[in-house]
Write a structure and sequence with these properties.
The protein is α+β, with helices and mostly antiparallel strands. It contains eleven helices and twelve strands.
Amino acid sequence: MLYLVSDASEPVSFSAAGNLKNEDQFLHPRRTMDSYELISVTKGILHITSGGRSYDLSPGQFLFLFPGELHFGTAPSNGELSFYWTHFYFNTKNTSLCREAEAASFFHKEDQPRYILPETGTFSANSRVNVLFVQLLDLSKRLGSLSSMQCSYAQSTLLLELTNECFFRQRLLLRDEKIPLGIADLMEWLQLNYDTTFSVSDIAEKFGYHPSYLSAVFKRCSGFPITEYLNRQRIRVAKNLLTTMPDLTLSEISEQVGIADEKYFMRLFKRYEGITAAAYREVFCEKAKNRI
């Protein structure tokens, strides 16, 4: 797989963004661009070829399209299709493509911040990227002299978050605290199993720790008790569902993130986000859309 590596000491330049929605038989147009494009599929399957490489992108998957490479749809979509898209430019000549091993090695170089972005991949359920996408779309609708600058910074934040998520383990193990491998494994496991009900004792037994020792080490490494860390993952997933699945009720979202008590879910959301779940959904309900 190819990785895009670029200097992140200054923001990228935002060009455009949108949320394409199509009811059936969408075929991506054939074209070559001078900008980078990031696509994130939220419903249906997008069949696309770029630079001679073919992809069938399902919900939760993303793809970067590179400037100067021909891309086009390889087959019409079957049924409803929806994806976020954004075009942008890097403001530096220090941008290159490389393979995974070389891309990972950049985390050991502390000379400058970098965007390190895989050509394609799958978001975790608690990924912040689509939430940031929705915020970017909201900003892109605003008018005024600051709008373009705001969008460029928002675009940069989105790309840095994607870098962090794709290299979660490397980021953990490079911390000064010298996080044990077992704790890094546990953090990843909690991110994947946010919707499961279990106690600290259950987790300790699964990972071979004494509950008291595990609780102390985990809080030192993550900054949170295990239960709070897990609840924060659940609220991150809920934010994705609130902004991308408007038909889901709060009760359904609460159940999907592993919280059986809807009222407890609503209290947690307000505690961590500062507003209610319903208000959070309302803030980003107006998004730029293009129907084809």
